[in-house]
Amino acid sequence: MTSSKIALLSAASLLAVASHAQAAAPAPAPAADAPVVVTVFGQRAAEREALDQQHKSQTLKEVVTANDAGKLPDQNVGEAVQRMPGVTVDDDQGEGRYVVIRGLDPALAAVRINGQDAAAPETDTREVKVDTIPSGLIGSIEVLKDQTAEYDANAIAGAVNVKTMTAFDKKKPFVTARYAAGHIDLDDKTSYDADLSAGTRFGDHKQFGVVVALNASRRPQASDNLQGSEHWGEDKTGAQIVPSDWKLRDYYVIRNRQGAAVNFDYKPNDDVHLYAHTLFSHFTDMEQRQQFGIKLAGQTATGDDTGTFASAKAAKRDAKYRFEDEHISTVSFGGEVTVGQGKLDADITNSTAIKDDDPRYNFSYVSGKKDAKGTYDLSDVLFDVDPGGKVYDPSNYTASEAELEADHYREILNQASLNYSLPTSLWGGDTTFKFGAKYSKRHKRSDVNYKLYDVSHSGMTLSDYQSYTGATLYNGRYDFGPTVDFIKSLDAAEAGGYLTDANLEEPDTLVGELADDYDVTETVSAGYAQATIRNGNWTVTPGLRVEHTANTSKAKAFDEDSSIDMPFNSFGKKDYTDLFPSVVGRYDVNSDTLVRFAATTSIGRPNYVDLAPHVNISKNDGSAEMGNPDLNPLKSVNLDAGFEHYFGKRGVISVSAFYKDIQDPIFNTGYTGDLTLGGVTYTDLNVTQPKNLDKATLAGVEFNLVYQFDDMLPAPLDGLGASLNLTSQKSSTDGAPGRSDKVSLIYTSDLTVTAELTYEKYNWTARIAYSYRSKFLDTLGDDKSTDIYTAARGRVDVKVGYELNKTWQVFVQGKNLNDAPWRRYIGNARQLVENEAYGQTWAVGVAAKF
User: How far apart are CA 825 and CA 831, in angstroms?
Assistant: First the structure.
């Protein structure tokens, strides 16, 4: 039986059971929730509000809301949503960065601010970084897993909607503040996170409202990184499978965030609501990375897991410095007014994302070619290499290369929408028609400036340009040796006249300078009609959406003989129109029990860098890399069925099944062919280019249990609460390049689990949480033995707070208490590609509400 039939049969079975229960006995009146005393700074009331929103929603969605003090339980949006069913995050430096819904590529998940799409600062993807949005500016976050026709169709994975606070969300004027100082265990540094928000309604009839929220944080994070190899093969004897590389990386990152939200609302009565909503986020990321690497060669086994090597290549030490500066702003003007018997709403939104990765420096030194030789021990996944004493002597290293780069990315997204909803009594019940139109225009630009200089003839040695010495990684397990002072090295190279055009490494500089320059404009014109029909216990919303997409793109086509300052010379154009039918429904067995079902369609437009018509031809090795402006978008048919039972507002138990049939997935493919560039034909090139394949499928089941034990346990245990969610899923792709077998989708874990135990009573609030994500494929290889996986990872977090009074709370929180590393491997779990450790993070703080 196919997964789609299973999903449909599940829905039918659940409906049959629910209908039988309804016919067999009238639904009893729901029992009133017992009154509960909640703390101002706790999450219990916020959880009840979130459950109430989920219960009332026509679509399947998960909600996190701020507590009575206006605070979410986590530092940024990514960490706040990762404990939802079927939701995980893709980490960077131990922080949640991109939202992964049901295991699908984050580029297929829409990120919206107050219902409108957010611009993305990244150059190679449509993914929106959610770690740049501080949680102190947010009223609630919704994750939508199915959608009616009124929503944009670009949400194959689902959508994350970040809603900022308004004065009409609160009954009284408010001022809240929070400050936390943290300790980063690995580098013994101090972090801070502070936010302030205030709101009030004013005017003769309290018809005006204003909210201002501010946030600032600083997080200095170190990490220890061991690089294994993406190439494992037999040693000389054929007795062992051995790596070809061994590298150590010592990271130090400082991340600063500043954010502001300013919301104005005018609501004189229920017939008029006008608003101006804004969200501004500034994020800087300073990274210093020292690296020490050795090419392993001539490996010869001396035991089951041990051996010797004698590398014919130099050891390398280099230092990288980069400074990312990102600005994201969203400004919306709109309102809702009563027109006749219905409601008319309109919105105009500008979202702008700016990223300046400027500067990026890298300076490297190399040893003698035969300096690295010694032994290895593969008995542990984090394997050991003893490369001999010469590679730890800075006088044996001479300057090699200097890399200077400055990257500038821009995305400007303008959107305008108009909707009209009209309630009627058609079909013997309560039916609401809704119609609307939307126009959006995106302009994405990438400009990379890159220079690679050969400084090997400068005579510079590392002994004269060292930074710190005596560094070790992984609690003293690995001796790092001398490090590079990149500023001193660059200054010396420039003063010596070595950073000039005469010393450019032309082929690499040309590729770095030209390959990632592009300019893409995309417009989407959309219209829809839907009807929400309520009849008895049924609520069904059928709808149809139409979207016309048009994009134009330009990039650079070049070979080794091209000029480095060449203009755009390669152009692409594509437009298409798609229909998106949908039906979303629910059947309420009684006031606490319901069944959901949905059949929807959605789209995933290609990443900008894949659409850009760049061409990079290397005549020397007969190869070419190309973009593809003719790519088709991904299209998906989505089936959902679910059962939910609510324990009043104290909790919920739910189970849902989902299935996605995705057409035209995009993979990088290789083929041999001819290309013509500037009137010159290049024959028999090995071409790499993104192309559409046949299809991919995803099927899974989600389970969720949330309960607050208010009336089940005696005091003081009645303050306990618990939650458990689990998602099990499988994915497969047909026709992956060069593969005859079925492979799973990138990012898709078979199992994700989150468990939480909470306590809230006697002024105390406490939470301990465990989040787990099983392994997932992150890079597709030529066969199973070369597939690269991100390993399974589970993390333990805790937070405890005490409410001194209705105004003040003190708290302590810890993250990654089990010191879980981030790890990648190739083929099998013992063949390490990369392991990164972050250590624990602790913070103490104070919060206030006035």
Answer: 5
pTM of the model: 0.89
Q: What is the pLDDT of residue 20?
A: 34
- State pLDDT tens for residues 408-434: 999 999 999 999 999 998 876 789 999
Task: Kindly tell me the burial class for residue 593, based on how many C-beta atoms sit within 10 Å of its own C-beta (0-12, 13-18, 19 or more).
Answer: middle
Residues 337 and 438: their CA atoms lie apart, in Å, by 18
Question: How does pLDDT run across 198-244, given as a tens digit for each residue?
Answer: 999 999 999 999 999 999 999 999 999 999 999 999 999 999 999 99
Q: Which two tokens stand for residue 164?
A: 């900022």
What the block records as the tokens of 82 is 């990762």
**Segment 270-299, tens digit of pLDDT:** 999 999 999 999 999 999 999 999 999 999
Of 566, 336, 533, give the one whose Cα is nearest residue 423. 533
Q: What H or E segment, with its residue span, contains residue 721?
A: strand 720-733
Do residues 93 and 101 lie in contact, with contact meaning Cβ atoms separated by under 8 Å? no
Q: Give CB contacts under 8 A, 24+ apart, made by 812-819.
A: 812/842, 812/843, 812/844, 812/845, 813/180, 813/842, 813/843, 813/845, 814/840, 814/841, 814/842, 814/843, 815/94, 815/840, 815/841, 815/842, 816/94, 816/840, 816/841, 818/794
How many angstroms separate the CA atoms of 593 and 830, rounded?
Answer: 47
Q: Is it the case that residue 563 has pLDDT exceeding 50?
A: yes
What gap in Å lies between CA 702 and CA 699, rounded to an integer? 10
The DSSP-derived string for 771-818 is EEE--EEEE--SSGGG-EEEPPEEEEEEEEEEESSSSEEEEEEEE-TT
Instruction: State whether residue 48 is helix, strand or coil.
Output: helix
